[in-house]
Amino acid sequence: MKSLGSIRRDFAPWNDPNAKPYIQFDNVTKKFGDFTAVNNLSLTIFEREFFALLGASGCGKSTLLRMLAGFEEPTAGRILLDGQDLRGIPPYRRPVNMMFQSYALFPHMTVENNIAFGLKQEGMPKPDIEKRVAEMLKLVKLEQFAKRKPHQLSGGQRQRVALARSVAKRPKVLLLDEPLGALDKKLREETQFELMDLQQELGLTFVVVTHDQEEAMTMADRIAIMDKGEVMQVATPAEVYEAPASRFVAHFVGNVNMFEGKVAERSANTTRITGASGAQIVVENGGAAAAANADIVFAIRPEKIKVSSKKPADAVNALEGEVYDVAYLGDMTVYHIRLDDGQIIRASALNAARVTEDPLTWNDRAWVSFRPDAGVVLAR
Amino acid sequence: MNATWSRFNVTSIVLGFAFLYLPIVLLIVFSFNESKLVTVWGGFSTKWYVSLFHNQGLMDATWVTARVGVISATVATVLGTLAALTLTRYTRFRGRVLFSGMVFAPLVMPEVITGLSLLLLFVAVGLDRGFFTVTLAHITLTMCFVAVVVQSRLVSFDRSLEEAAMDLGATPAKTFFQITLPVILPAIVSGWMLAFTLSLDDLVIASFTSGPGATTLPMKIYSQVRLGVTPEINAACTILIAVVAVGVIIASIANKRREVQRQLDEQAAQRG
Predict the structure, then answer these.
(1) How do A222-227 and A50-54 pair as beta strands?
(2) I need a labelling partner for B181 at 20 to 30 A (CA). Which of A41, A303, B77, B140 fits?
């Protein structure tokens, strides 16, 4: 079986036409005065899904999350949770909890009282609260910090308290607003995996807002890429990366090379493209964008491009140029190759072996080659 | 800490502090004067403190001042806090600029004018001048000070704390009493202390709005001084100074301790 990316995903309710949507945004618009933060947006999220809203700041992702939490009401459209219309329901009656970017821990309360706060509001009996708080402290490994105040904790510990507090009530949906934004890089990477494990363990639906594409790629089942209040693509991390729906998405996630060209010839399986300088490329499955004579771009990721000093004998697509820049990063090497038509191609090669035969250096002649299925054809 | 103590520096410091504190030191020293003549030193004695506590007029005035101070500071704190909340939370209502201007106008209004206009009002509505009117006047005077103190705290208040509380199921009222109020409480307490102090030493407005039977301590002292300064008044003032000084010192020590504790805690948290 073949699939995009290197992970087999067995959990994929979005491919099942009978799956019941859990959270539904129906043509939701939110305006602040003249500014449209969210523009006629529709989105479906499924139960137990880890869903990420990814976009630059100001793209409307946080507004979307705040509408789900009840801090903002949509100007138009509706939001359904488990079949229930959320309009008019105040935040304190919604079965969702949120973990705030600033953590928003109550400074005058101890860690355990912070975690117990939501349970007390529910009117849960005291012994049950104590039991649940102990359970939560264990879950985030903070048992010995129960009596501390938030300012007596490190950043990572505060983040865990915020997490424990937001899942203590067993909400139907947990909303996370840049949950790892304030942590340093190493801690962030560890915590990403912990969050994934936690979501599996609790069986909750997570909706996370982030501007960090690596974070979204690591954790999410599906990612919605947002720009200017609209969703550009909703897909699994592999689809977003390997089959971006537009130039915007291709540029937004990861690095990409773009060849501008025209469709010269289409057959059942392959499309031949003529580049601006006359170079020919053959690609598989051009898709809808590749109509005859259409102006298109061919997008290809750097690691799909092979760099060699001689033209590979079996290559379908091979272009000649010279090494413009090269950088050794340890795990991989990044090349910038200037093609003879002037375009600069970024290619990267995994350093799978310690010793490289026939290495390249600045200003060497070089060939770049790639397979017909290595990239995608996008509308221009 | 390596400043050289030049003659010029020493002189300016001595002169500056003398200018500020010499009158007060003189007053304290003469409160322990044996002699009945205020300006002639007749040996050390605490007899004026004893006679002070037998001076019914001064004791009554002290009691009035304390009650006016506590009641007016408390009411002013409630009103001032509400005004500060409105001004920081509802930034876009009609007439906000006018409202904030009106809240803060008494800060710069000459006290004579405030006192006179209040007097005119009380006469116009037929309120008998006395304890009640002084208290009302002091509420008017001190409310804006409380509003300023509380507002400056609210500006740096993280609104997501309230959102988090509501998100966890607390109604807006519960959120206010369980989250907002405890967090801004230190500012409210300093507001109350400021209001109490202002009420304590107000002479001008009290003179306008007070009536028979509700003479405050500053009024009493002022009227007695006009008949000639007695060592008793010196003793009363010394006690007043002591009360204020002790209050200020306790507040700053508590503040300092909290700050040091917080720094220690944060260092401990960094170490893990």
Answers:
(1) parallel
(2) B140
Partner A contacted by B128 (CB < 8 A): no
Q: Predicted confidence band at A286 (pLDDT cuts at 50, 70, 90)?
A: low
Q: How far is CA A375 from CA A222, A223, A306, A343, B84, in A?
A: 21, 20, 13, 17, 60
Mutate which of B158, B167, B185 to disrupt the A interface (most A C-beta within 10 Å)? Answer: B167
**Domain spanning B57-233: CATH 3.40.50.11540:** no
Place of tokens 């999350």: A65
Nearest to B210 by CA among B56, B68, B58, B62: B68
Which domains are seen in chain A, by residue range? 13-249 (3.40.50.300), 255-379 (2.40.50.140)
Local confidence band at B206 (pLDDT 50, 70, 90 cut-offs)? very high
Residue among A370, A358, A360, A299 at smallest CA distance from A325: A360
Interface of B with A in 140-199 (CB under 8 A): 158, 160-161, 163-172, 174, 178-179, 182-183
Longest alpha-carbon distance in chain B: 72
Interface of B with A in 225-264 (CB under 8 A): 262
Strands (E), A123-243: 173-177, 205-210, 222-227, 230-235
B158 and A149 within 8 Å at the Cβ level: the answer is no
Contacts of A164 in chain B (CB under 8 A): none
CB A92 to CB B171 under 8 A?
A: yes
By the CB < 8 Å criterion, does A179 face chain B? Answer: no
Q: Does A91 sit within 8 Å of B166, measured CB to CB?
A: yes
- Domains of chain B: which residue ranges? 57-233
Query: In chain A, how long is the greatest CA-to-CA distance?
Result: 77
* Whether B180 contacts B154, CB under 8 Å: no
ipTM of model:
0.85
Question: CA torsion, points B14, B19, B25, B31, in degrees to nearest 10?
Answer: 160
- Which residues in A lie closer than 8 A to residue B166 (C-beta atoms)? 90-92
Cα dihedral value A15, A20, A21, A22, nearest 10:
-130
